[in-house]
């Protein structure tokens, strides 16, 4: 039975996050959004460098 629950998954490896995002996109039949991927990449880079975000 389907239940609506929210799930938070935190990755420490951007390549694993990208792979999981692609798999979920294919399962949900949603097209990949390049802008969202670039924003997530931008945030990951700044988190790893520990610099403030200037968005």
UniProtKB/TrEMBL annotation:
Domain of life: Eukaryota
PANTHER family noted in UniProt: ATP SYNTHASE SUBUNIT ALPHA, MITOCHONDRIAL
Single GO term (MF): proton-transporting ATP synthase activity, rotational mechanism
Gene3D superfamilies: 3.40.50.12240
Identification of the protein by name: Uncharacterized protein
A cellular-component GO term for this protein: proton-transporting ATP synthase complex
